[in-house]
Structure formats: C-alpha cells, structure tokens
Design a protein that fits this description.
Blueprint (H helix, E strand, L loop, with lengths): L22 H5 L4 H10 L2 E5 L5 E5 L2 H9 L4 E2 L27 H10 L4 H5 L2 H12 L8 E2 H5 L2 H10 L6 H12 L11 H26 L6 H5 L3 E2 L2 E2 L2 H32 L1 H9 L4 H12 L4 E6 L3 E3 L2 E3 L4 E5 H4 L34 H18 E6 L4 E2 L8 E3 L1 E6 L4
Parallel strand pairs: 2-10
Antiparallel strand pairs: 1-2, 3-7, 4-14, 5-6, 7-10, 8-9, 11-14, 12-13
Length: 417
C-alpha cells in the first residue's frame, strides 16, 4: 500500500463500486483517496462480497475509536481480523484478542504486568545490542533490503525475552507472516485458507510443545512465555490451551507490525531528506519521529468487530450481528484530528494516532514496540549519513497489514566531526 500523500476525496468516485477486499488496491494501489472520500461522503460504508459475505466499514477517527473501544456494542468474541470474515473465531474466550471484558481485562492485567513501560525499561541495553547487530550489514556500502531484513528484527529483540531460541526465529517469523498476509506470494502455501490453517496449526503446536518441555524440565527461566505458565486469573491458572493461544497472540503481535513501521518510516525519510536532516540534527525529535512513523504507516490498518445489536454509527445503522471493519489507516489520516494529515512531519505536536488500537484491546506490547523503534532510529540516525533507494519498494499483498516485502536501500556512513 502506497503511503504517499493522497490527493483528497474524489467527488466523482463511485463508492458503490469500491472493493476494499481488492488485494491489488494494497499491493500496487493507494486506498487513501478512497478512505478520504468515504470519510467525506460515506462514513458508514456497506459492501457485499461475491460469495455473499458482507461487512460495514467505518473510516472516521471518532467512529473507529467507538468501534474499538465499546465492547458492549461491538464484540471481539466472533473474530477481530478481516481474514476471518464469515467464520466465527474458534478461539473466542481463549485467545486474549478474541475475548471481551471482564475476562479479557483479567488476563490482560496479569500478562501486561511484564510489559509495562517500567518493566521493559530494563531490556534497553539488550535491545540496543540487537539493533546495532541488525544495522551492521547496511554499513558495508552495498544494497541492503531493509523490508526483507526487518522481518527478523522483532525476533532478534523479543526472542530472548520470550524464551525462544535463535534457531527458531526465522521459522516463527515466516509463520506469523503467513497469518497476516496469507495471499502474499512470499508467504502463501496453496490457497489463502490453506496458508492460514497451516500457520495457525504450526504456531499453536510450537507454543504447546514449548509449554510441555518447560513443564517437564521444571523451574523457570524468567521469560514471558514462562510467565504465562504462572499467570492466575480468577484464582485459577491458565489452561495449557489458553497458554498456547495467548503465546500465539504474543508471537503474532511481536513479529508483525514493528518491521513494517520501520520500513515505512525509513521510506518516508528517504523521500523527504529534509525530515531526515531535522531528526538527525536534533535527537530530541526521535520520539516524535517514532509517533509520526506509527501514524503514517498504520501497519495494522484495520480491525474487525461484530455489532451486538442494531447500532447507529456514521450516519447509518449496522444490523445486529453485522461485521464492522474499523479502518485505522483512515482514522490516522482524518483531517478533523490531524493537521496536514497526508504530510509526514517529525515535529508534529498533536499526534493522538490509533496505530496501536484503542480501548480494551490497545496493544499490550506498545511500550516494548515504542522502545524498540526509538532505539532503532537513534542508532540509525547516529550511524547513517544518508539513505537512498536502490530499487522499487514492493508492497505486501494484504488488506490487513500495510507493509513492504522489499525496500532495497544504499546507506552511507555518517561522518564523525
């Protein structure tokens, strides 16, 4: 999906013919002009797919926050990602992301205690070492495919924290990519449905086997997955099935969005050298660069909920049981919330983006992701004097994750005074 500035709403665009499930729109097109038009003329948009499945879309910032924030009106317990549209989530009530409060709140509180900003602060040195190791190959002067390499970055950062050995990182990265982009030729194995089924099975099997090994070995290694085995909710420990599902969710969250934020933000800086120069000249701008990169890329570009009853929203009504897709990528370019929303500005002062979601399901790993991104750009700006494209970016074939599979670059070392 191109992240370049949109042209604004097209008054002649026939929204009745728009297909938001057209994978080419995200691989080689640009949905932003469509979202612009939908926010202006159809803030609640209804689409019926050729196979009869249907969904309603909300694109305005306030409506997206309402859908994601109110579990009483919009439940997560039938599925939360568009690749599952039409099939209820078999993990509802077990997988944290497919569970509503109060159960969700109890599980989240127990797991999240290990992922607060204070808790992850002690991991900074290890993360910085991993980032420096990651950046080293780019300083050789040759072509460096950031998007391809960045897929492994979260595993380098979180693998040791989760308790996952390095020998398994590449396989798990491949499997999580298959879940989020099952139609991309880089990750597809057979049909989209087959790819999803294989990835789900293999990821759950991996975590289940990990738990069994840990139980038989005894003791504790202090990892996050080990922590799951000791979590108690309502006075009872999580079942092995719940541990497997929540471990699966943590793996997915850790591996999916951060690499695409990295690649998309770097591309924005390559295309806007004045923004690169600003951030490099003033290290205090790195925190703002991270937030702008999150808003700009919106890697998880949508989430889905189901209306619990007939619900008025966006000037229309979603029927009871209707699937509602909240387009985060659109909300983060809403002109009612962001000045110059299609501009990339590392000095943006008011940036209440929803790249990590909103409400009860706000990304539990956000503090760790923010710290990883901050360290990445601190180290990159310190080491790279300039970055140039060495070829055309190639975008991920997915209507759920906005990202790239290839971003060939040439980086030049920064000269020290």
């Amino acid at each position: 999906m191109r992240l370049t500035p949109g042209a604004g709403p097209d008054p002649d665009l026939d929204l009745g013919r728009v297909d938001l499930f057209d994978l080419d729109l995200y691989t080689s097109g640009d949905p932003h002009p469509i979202w612009d038009a939908m926010r202006a003329r159809a803030p609640l948009h209804h689409q019926v797919l050729p196979d009869g499945r249907e969904f309603w879309s909300v694109t305005r910032y306030e409506d997206v926050c309402r859908v994601l924030g109110d579990h009483r009106e919009f439940t997560s317990e039938r599925g939360t990602v568009v690749t599952h549209l039409g099939t209820d989530d078999v993990a509802a009530g077990l997988l944290m992301t497919s569970t509503d409060p109060p159960r969700h709140t109890e599980v989240r509180r127990a797991i999240g205690a290990r992922l607060t900003a204070r808790a992850v602060a002690g991991w900074q040195d290890r993360i910085r070492q991993a980032v420096v190791r990651f950046l080293e190959p780019a300083l050789g002067g040759g072509d460096w495919d950031l998007a391809e390499q960045a897929l492994l970055l979260p595993a380098m950062v979180t693998g040791p924290l989760l308790g996952i050995p390095e020998r398994d990182w590449a396989e798990l990265v491949q499997l999580t990519a298959m879940v989020t982009a099952p139609s991309d030729p880089h990750f597809q194995h057979g049909s989209q449905a087959a790819t999803l089924a294989i990835a789900h099975h293999e990821l759950l099997a991996y975590v289940t086997a990990w738990v069994r090994r840990r139980r038989s070995a005894g003791g504790a290694d202090g990892s996050l997955l080990d922590h799951l085995m000791n979590v108690r909710v309502g006075g009872a420990p999580l079942t092995d099935e719940e541990i497997a599902y929540d471990g699966y969710s943590i793996l997915l969250g850790a591996n999916v969005t951060t690499p695409h934020t990295v690649s998309g933000t770097v591309l924005a800086l390559v295309e806007r050298p004045e923004q690169f120069a600003k951030a490099q000249a003033d290290p205090s701008l790195v925190a703002g660069l991270v937030e702008e990169g999150l808003r700009w890329t919106s890697p998880a570009c949508n989430f889905m909920r189901y209306a619990t009853g007939a619900t008025r929203i966006g000037g229309g009504t979603v029927p009871a049981g209707g699937a509602v897709v909240a387009w985060i990528g659109s909300a983060n370019r809403d002109e009612s919330q962001f000045t110059d929303p299609h501009g990339f500005d590392v000095t943006r002062s008011r940036n209440r983006h929803v790249a990590f979601g909103f409400g009860p399901h706000y990304c539990i790993g956000a503090p760790l992701a923010r710290m990883t991104l901050r360290i990445f750009f601190e180290e990159m700006l310190q080491r790279f004097g300039s970055i140039e494209l060495a070829g055309e970016p190639q975008h991920l074939r997915s209507y759920f994750i906005a990202g790239m599979t290839h971003l060939p670059l040439v980086a030049r070392k920064r000269r020290t005074p």
